[in-house]
Amino acid sequence: MRLLVTGGAGFIGSHFIGSFLSENPDAEAVNVDSLTYASIFKPDFERQFGRRYSFLRADIIDSEKMAAACRDADLVINFAAETHVDNSIATRCASQGQTSLALPPS
What is the pLDDT along the chain (106 residues), one digit of tens a residue? Predict the structure, then answer.
């Protein structure tokens, strides 16, 4: 199984990736994150999980990058978020990001 996790450098996303790959030795995970102030990027995942883990620095509002990233994924899990609701609204992350994950680029 090839899993794509958005927001994988955040607290919840990074713990999910570590647990998922530890419990599923045949699985792969692609971590997509824009590495904002809320990130706690764990570069040791590359050492710990080798080729089963990869990182793509991208914002979920970039529909072209997200379409390309999702192309080979069996499952997409979205943890991408801002740390405060007002930050999500101010940056349009919530609405634009969800649309980018749901719709292919036109």
Answer: 999 999 999 889 999 999 999 999 999 999 999 988 777 776 689 899 999 999 999 988 888 999 999 999 999 999 987 776 666 566 555 444 454 555 555 5
23 burial type by CB count under 10 A (0-12 exposed, 13-18 middle, 19+ buried): exposed
Q: Reduce the DSSP state of residue 10 to 3 states and report it.
A: coil
Q: Which domains does the chain have, with CATH numbers?
A: 2-102 (3.40.50.720)
DSSP letter, residue 74 = S
Question: Contact 38/82 with Cβ under 8 angstroms?
Answer: yes
